[in-house]
Amino acid sequence: MASNSRRVGLIYDDRMCKHFDPDDQYHPENPNRIRSIWKKLESSGINQRCIVMNGKEAEDKDIALVHTKAHIDLIRNISSKKIGLKRNKIAAKFNSIYFNEGSSEAAYLSAGSVIQVAEKVAEGELDSAFAVVRPPGHHAEENEPMGFCLYNNVAIATRYLLDERPDLGIKKILIVDWDVHHGNGTQKMFWDDPRILFFSVHRHDFGSFYPGGEDGSHVMTGEGPGAGYNINVPWENGRCGDADYLAVWDHVLIPVAKEFGPDIILISAGFDAAIGDPLGGCRVSPYGYSVMLHKLLEFAGGKIVMALEGGYNLESIANSVQACIEVLLQQKPIAGSSEAYPFESTWRVIQAVRDKLSAFWQPLAERLTEKTTSMTTPYIQVVSSDSEDEYDTTPHTVSQELEKDIENIIQPFSDLKVNDGQACTISHTWRAELSKIDIWYATFGSNMYQSRFLCYIAGGQVEGMQKPCIGSLDKRKPKEIIWKTFPHRLFFARERTATWGPGGVAFLHPESNSDEKAYMCLYRITLEQFNDVLLQENVSNFDMNSPLFDMTDLQSIENSKCVSAEAVKNGWYHNVLYLGKENGLPILTMTCRLSDIDNFKSGNVLTCKPSKEYANNLIRGLVEGKQLSEEEATTYIQEAASRAL
Ligand SMILES: [Zn+2]
């Protein structure tokens, strides 16, 4: 035993590895997640400083505290031989769920293990504990498994302590959900219950990040006696890191926790906001997690129960869990530092959360000072895997590239001195200016299909797309839609894209050719919206500090015919082309550079037929726009896809 006397419980059980996707061994929620964590804890020897326990299956009566009987029957029986081949069909009825013959046992172990450590911490037998469990739980709702989650482990343990063990004196529970996704299931289960303060910080991206919609919004504060006991901090974009999370801790969570005075804290500890996570796109370091956890140790006499939720980069989750257990043992953060300031959007979100909750929590009533909120890191655009229009990279290389870019750019800013509270405040006045200018955006690819184009304005996802779009800040629909043909060559290139999967995407040859006739759908939108589309076509986020294509570009493009959006020059569609005027307004489109044509011709970048889903969207657009019949549209696309450049 080490010199400290903290009794930290640790639960791990191999049987939870029997749950996996039978059709996809690379599914992100796979057994290697907890195996890699356990391997790390063993190799570092930290497990020997903890009290290690085996998993324990939950009882139906405890699960029934938060789930319906129908839900419990489903999970109990899903792995039985009788269900057999019907299993996949049942799974398909739910959102992001798979089942196999090991699912039932793993679900019961996962829930039961969290109950077990929570009970021991509440009893005082342990000071704190970490349950290395899967499947995760926080998306699971009362009557529905969801988002890789079967039973809501943390919610079950919470109700167990309150309702089944009143003798332990636990009356108020703080749940901190720092998984990068919103804990929709937990929120709903405790919506009107003031015994539980539910706090979730997550990517929301204005409702387009999983699980999506309004549930994760900061206006969702609970109801009835539970009003004010539900706190959501919704990030507007990815790439949030230590500084952003710690700002939320200091200016929302910690002041409220002080006031609430929990008897125990349960953490829905997902590590998919960690640097390098393929789904999260945020950048919290192990050091960041250790400080977040350490700040919570001052409450409830340090009674903290952590339960694993998401986290899909094996190295990141292992390092982050190790750091957290170190904090539980040592009662201090691990060595490290994080110097960068929060994003400007982070302060905006924090202030909005405080405004919304100040009626319930007095410490939030005071406005943040300008001195505090002026300490920001400019938002830097980085090519990410959201776009159909960037070079294909695996999640791993994306994160490495992102790291490199971020380090290069953030480092200089981290040394920035803040004087008179006006260091690098970000102005969005360009949006107001460009929102008054109308242009025609001429589309030749899947954007000809209105529903698909509207994803770039309102946010959303149409059939075949692998991920939803964020949308424009200005969500007003196009003022007019017209069709025209242009003397340009339409062709398809690249082998696969992040948005559509395998298959080529459409390009317009930047040079005109009177032998060609490309059908194009023209949307009348503002220049501000055009910038948001241009950004989404090339990179994923839109917190632009300055426009990609501004008034000067607009004035010069008539003469120069094309202008490169240099800030997104790694994207495939950063070359803005001028195609003339319609009703006095300029017609703009975006495509590859002329120099890319040589790469397509030489075979350096393959020309390639579009995927079925992608082609269908083009055809739908042409038919819906009454330009061609379905047969004609199909032939038009096939012909464009098969002709040599
Ligand atoms: Zn998650």
Automatic annotation (TrEMBL):
It catalyses: N(6)-acetyl-L-lysyl-[histone] + H2O = L-lysyl-[histone] + acetate. Its cofactor is Zn(2+). GO terms for biological process: epigenetic regulation of gene expression; regulation of developmental process. Residues 27-328 form the Histone deacetylase domain. It is found in: Nucleus. Keywords: Chromatin regulator, Hydrolase, Metal-binding, Nucleus, Repressor, Transcription, Transcription regulation, Zinc. One of its GO terms (molecular function) is metal ion binding. It is an enzyme of class 3 (hydrolase). Gene3D superfamilies: Gamma-glutamyl cyclotransferase-like, Histone deacetylase domain. The keyword Oxidoreductase does not apply. It comes from the Eukaryota. Its EC number is 3.5.1.98. This is histone deacetylase. InterPro entries: HDACs, His_deacetylse_dom, His_deacetylse_dom_sf, Ureohydrolase_dom_sf. GO terms for cellular component: cytoplasm; histone deacetylase complex. Belongs to the histone deacetylase family. HD type 2 subfamily. Its main location: nucleus.
